Amino acid sequence: MALYPNLILDALKNVRYPGTGKDIVSAGMVEDDLRIDGNKVTFSLVFEKPNDPFIKSVVKAAETAILTYVGEEVEIKGNISVKAKQLARPEPAKLLPQVKNIIAISSGKGGVGKSTVSANLAVALAKMGYKVGLLDADIFGPSVPKMFDVEEVRPFLENIDGRDLIIPAEKYGVKLLSIGFFVDKDNAVLWRGGMASNALKQLIADAHWGELDYFLLDLPPGTSDIHLTLVQTLAITGAIVVSTPQEVALADARKGIDMFVGEKVNVPVLGLVENMAWFTPAELPQNKYYIFGKEGAKRLSEEMKVPLLGQIPIVQSICEGGDKGAPVALDENSMTGQAFIHLAESVVEQVHLRNEKQAPTKRVEVK
């Protein structure tokens, strides 16, 4: 006897789902993965929930229908797979509904310590009692796994409200996700722009971030299509631009600010962070050596009329903390720990001011 798909589907139309009374073919419960190999037939049935109470009875009814209406020689028992319906990804405007503020942290060029600032700002905000998430959006140079000593972590999927979502790692009170969790840390990521953007969308939209006061995005350096992807995907509260005091870095920081405030992006800049503002040796904590220039970012903030959120000095402990996976902001009594706490306070203040401006004004009726 020759078997063909329509013969199987016609038999399955005699099976009704008890919950609705519709036949399982019309209800769209038969997946389009039907395969016929001689007398062996395999396919999947899709249910709304993984714990649907009618799963066993419907599978049994489907087997019986095929044996009755097609023929007893069909090998069908044990060949019907069961799947839970995967809900569609929410529209961009509805993404991360439990996240209050989304902060993009950017730099005009690489090597200015953007990821160090991102990691320590996240830790400082968490120490202040806020719920914080940090996404390492630097697809081609992920460093967050190293900075938090979670390089060996492999996030898992969990079915939440009908969707399989990535569960972020968590350390020091910060929820973390990075492409570094999913690739070999010793190999370069060789992806075209579209692949990188899609991977980033998945880390945002297909992850269970939950309730957050602050969601920090550690962006790649420069200006690229990844930046545009994020703006099109998320309602970003504001951007922070990181720079060193030297002129070559400031020139790129100026371009970064211009990108955010331009028409294509149109994201408010919360302020500038001057990293490596000065060098202070551990044995001479009162001394400041301006090895990259003095207050360049401060002058740029005045020129471009954006706040200077903080100045972070160079001390050996910053490098050591990043390499050991223990951000210096964990020690709020240290010089750098205090600098990052001050930065976090400035960010909270600017976000509050920005949200106040965005809040709708109440109309007062005059009687």
Describe what you observe in this structure.
With 367 residues, this protein is α/β, with parallel strands linked by helices. The protein is 33% helix and 21% strand. The strands form 3 sheets. Strands 8-9-5-10-4-11-12-13 form an 8-stranded mixed sheet, sandwiched between helices. Strands 1-2-3 form a 3-stranded mixed sheet, with helices on one face. The N and C termini lie far apart (86 Å). The model is unreliable at 361-367 (pLDDT under 50).
Please sum up the structure shown:
With 367 residues, the protein is an alpha/beta fold. It is 33% helix and 21% strand.
* Coarse morphology: elongated
CATH class categorisation of the largest domain: Alpha Beta
Beta content comes to 15-25%
Count of DSSP helices?
A: 10
Task: Describe how the helices and strands are arranged.
Blueprint: H1 5-12, E1 35-37, E2 40-47, H2 55-69, E3 80-84, E4 99-107, H3 114-127, E5 132-136, H4 144-147, E6 157-160, E7 163-166, E8 169-171, E9 174-178, H5 193-205, E10 212-218, H6 225-233, E11 238-243, H7 247-261, E12 269-279, H8 296-304, E13 308-314, H9 316-324, H10 335-358
Parallel strand pairs: 2-3, 4-10, 4-11, 5-9, 5-10, 11-12, 12-13
Antiparallel strand pairs: 1-2, 6-7, 8-9
For this entry, give a set of tags.
367 residues, alpha/beta, GMP Synthetase, Chain A, domain 3, Rossmann fold, three-stranded mixed beta sheet, 10 helices, 13 strands
